[in-house]
Amino acid sequence: MPVVWIPTPLRDLTQGKSSVIVTGSTVREAIERLELQFPGIKERLCENEKIRPNISVLVDGHVTPLKIRERLQETSEVHFVVRISGGSVIETDAGCFG
Amino acid sequence: MATMDKPNEYRVIGTSPLRHDGTDKVTGRAQYGADIRLPGILYGAVLRSPHAHARILSIDTSGAEKFPGVYAVATAKDLPDLESKIVELGEGIVNRRYQSNNILARDKVLYFGHALAAIAATSSHVAKEALELIHVEYEVLPPVMDVRKAMEADSPILLDELRTEEFGKKGEKPTNISSHSQDKCGDIERGFKEATVIVEREFTTSMVHQGYIEPQNGTAQYNPDGQVTVWCSTQGAFGVREQVAEILEIPVSNIRVIPMEIGGGFGGKIGVYLEPLAVLLSRKSGYRPVKLTMDRSEVLTSTGPTSGSYIKLKMGADASGKITAAQATLIYEVGAYPGGSVGGGMGVLLAPYRIENAVIDGYDVLVNKPRIAAYRAPGGTNAAFAAETVIDELSEKLGMDPIEFRLNNGSKEGDRRVDGTVFARVGYLETLQAAKDSPHYQSPLPGSNSGRGIATGFWFNYGGKSSASASVNNDGTVNLLEGSVDIGGTRTSLAMQLAETLGIPAEDVRPVVADTNSIGYTEGTYGSRTTFATGWAVYETANSLKEKLMERAAILWEVEAKQVQFEDGVFSSGDKKISFKELASKLDETGGPVVASAAVQPKQYGPAFAAHIVDVEVDPDTGKVQILRYTAVQDAGKAIYPDYVASQMQGGVAQGVGWALNEEYFYDESGRLLNASLLDYRMPIALDLPMIETIIVEVPNPGHPYGARGVGEVPIIPPPAAIANAIYHAIGVRMNALPMSPGRVVSVLDTQKG
Question: What are phi and psi of B426, to 5 degrees?
């Protein structure tokens, strides 16, 4: 099942767990499952049913432009990271390491 | 320049053809923004704040409006009063209100040079004279110039409504801390207990500017039918279109942005400053075109430099040379409005190393300085200055060679970073080994008062959205339209990828940077993305052309398309063969024109690593640091155009040397910038630098058809740390502040050596 890595600032909601195994075939479903286990986490990640604009979603090492709609595989790893900003008025999804 | 790895397997890629824009640029025919001349054009000037922090009580423009030759005067009242809201544009996110207030201050001025009003007149002289007739009444407030003071509870507050953002949660109190992030892994206490040696240091770096040659400029024509054309110097035409649309509440479909040639950007020409003003003034002046250009002083006071910073870093290693723990706090200036680069610093800080126990805290903090902009690997150089200095000290304490120490701990494919993400195929170890084997590192150490320093760097790189289109001419050449502004020679690196895919010479491709009405959406030239991402779009376009031409060959030979093969620029079917060029001459008889286009958003960016070696000589009496020899080693994936890759490496080093030794924004206590000219803001000149040697390592990026990685940003990351380490090995003092100017070196010598 997919593994969601919990950003450090949200680990107070997951009793300190840095990763959580969830069911779900999309990022949206994974977040919904997380919310059932750890109430309040969805609000930190989402705004109006979308990923917050300053958060990037990485699935299997790559920033996904599909964000909440990205499909997950059984072995997928999901990360939420703060978008890298150059400090210009515009921030980008440069937080990819793959 | 040297290139490691196996012989080149390509015909075009990996070679260095003549650049397509070379003739225009060396003959002065290339058209830059300041070259724009239009009938009836007016010239603008901008009134800027003499205070670093003040409330605007009133602005009286009546005198200026009556001045002969003045056509329009604009203040923030002429801009839509936008709510403070983050909006997603095609290229990212932006707070509309802050962006608007940075164009023209509404309630407060937040830095020396903050724009307050703009005038359009028959000449720039008239416009500047009229500026003096604008009367502004201020309530001057105490400025906040230092990030640590700005974080104190009793610090003056820049933006009353600001609350600290911490991963989806807002703080409750007014503050200057715009964001706090934390990355953590393992058990930090256990990690330090396992350490044999521990080094803990504090570092500061000064705000510095990108130093592009060409100042910002923007010309606009607002037509009575609501259609707007903008000519400007930008890293991304579509980004200008969206920002102008957002600030002025004009539909994007009404705006056409024509990117002119650009005299450097380095991240500083992503955001807009003048373009919305030119549009606004054009409308207010009765639809006459208006041109605004900055002078150098305005560039330094009023555009976005990069963050100064404070970094505290503690690292430990065991007797075997394994790094056991790292703990860091990074505090970065963002200038007047939120949106900083500490995230980049946090990502770069420990990226080269496999560390099981680490915690990194990052803060973006407002100060009364210009709102920062991106600068080549934003946030990275500050962080590497700290980390690579501490790494050097750790390796010294353990009696290990600094490259060997890094090889022992170096990141590789499959390693998990502090934030939990995992590296794909990266070339850090190969880069280190190439540095270790280099003629420079193998050469004898320099003489007295001389030393050698090593430092390494990482940068994420980026992908993003890109578009390209191409058409085949009947003489066998191909016209290529692409949306990426050419800053570092990307016309040619893109043309080469098209040529390679089609099996034709690079000289047979005619690349053109298109405007926003002529090409599909393309993000700006930043994030070291253009050769990679727009290269992907070009590759897909070429493949589409190839398929269409195979169909044409099939028509020509009266066979099925699936019976046609293509290899090295030749189409064949059985014993029939025809070259690309010959087939191009038969388009009319096989169905007419052939065009193709593609739009992409590739995800597998391929991060970059670099390792730098520098020898310096230090004069202990004057503190002057002379660079004796410099070698930059870098993983370029596959180097599409090796000469350009080497140029990017050398350019990054040159800027990094300036950052290391001389460059700094120098403010007085009232927040006034005292060195707003290139006479006083000391950038490196040719005499300051030796020929920078380059070694290109090629660990292909599996996420690109030709293996390309971004190359433009990572070379600016190691220089300050490499030079600091070289200074230490030359005269025995550790430098912990940038710039390492002569005065500072002497001061540190006096302090540390008595």
Answer: -130, 160
Structure tokens at B351: 């990226």
* pLDDT at B623 exceeding the cut of 90: yes
Q: Where are the domains of chain B?
A: 424-460+605-754, 463-600
Residue of chain A minimizing CA distance to B417:
A97
Domain coordinates of chain A in residue numbers? Answer: 3-92
Percent of chain B with pLDDT over 70: 98
B463-600 CATH, one of 3.40.50.2000, 3.30.365.10, 3.90.1640.10, 3.50.50.60: 3.30.365.10
Write the DSSP assignment of B16-59 as a string of letters: -PPPTTHHHHHTT-SPBGGG---TT-EEEEEEE-S-SSEEEEEE
With the CA atoms of B3, B5, B11 and B12 taken in that order, what torsion angle do they form, in degrees rounded to the nearest 10? -40
Average pLDDT over residues B551-561: 97
Contact A55, A81 (CB under 8 A): yes
User: Which residue's structure tokens are 């025995």?
Assistant: B732
| Subunit contact A54:B527, Cβ cutoff 8 A | no
Contact (CB<8Å) B603/A96: yes
Name the residue type at position B741. S
CATH number of the structural domain B424-460+605-754: 3.30.365.10
Query: Does ipTM top 0.95?
Result: no
Using pLDDT thresholds of 50, 70 and 90, give the confidence band for residue B6. low
Give the Cα separation of B345 and B2 in Å (integer): 30
| Average confidence (pLDDT) over B630-655 | 97
Q: Which helix (H) or strand (E) holds B751?
A: helix B742-753
Q: Is B477 on the interface with A (CB under 8 A)?
A: no
Q: Cα separation of B206 and B52, whole Å?
A: 17
Does domain A3-92 fall under CATH 1.10.3980.10? My reply is: no
| Cβ proximity of A11 and A19 under 8 Å | no
Query: Do B343 and A64 lie within an 8 Å CB cutoff?
Result: no
How far apart CA B635 and CA B494 sit, in angstroms, is: 19
User: How far does the CA of residue A77 sit from the closest CA of chain B (Å)?
Assistant: 9
**Chain B residue numbers touching A34 (CB-CB < 8 A):** none
Please tell me what DSSP assigns to residue B253.
G
Cβ–Cβ below 8 Å for B424 and A98? yes
Per-residue pLDDT averaged across A14-38, rounded? 96
Is B424-460+605-754's fold the same as B463-600's?
yes
Residue A86 pLDDT: 60
C-alpha separations of B421 from A95, B184, B413, B488, B614 in Å? 10, 12, 11, 31, 32
Look up the pTM and report it: 0.96
In this structure, are strands B478-482 and B509-513 parallel, antiparallel, or unpaired? Answer: parallel
Give the tens place of pLDDT for each residue, B657-696: 999 999 999 999 999 999 999 999 999 999 999 999 999 9
Percentage of residues in chain B having pLDDT higher than 90 = 95
Neighbouring C-beta atoms of residue B88, cutoff 10 Å: 11
If you ran DSSP here, which 8-state letter would residue B327 be given?
A: E
Q: Please work out, in degrees rounded to the nearest 5, the angle formed at the alpha carbon of residue B695 by the alpha carbons of B689 and B701.
A: 130
Q: What are phi and psi of B128, to 5 degrees?
A: -70, -35
- CA nearest B606: which of B715, B459, B709, B463? B709
* B379 with A5: Cβ contact below 8 A: no
Point out the residue among B243, B422, B462 whose CB comes nearest to the CB of A94: B462
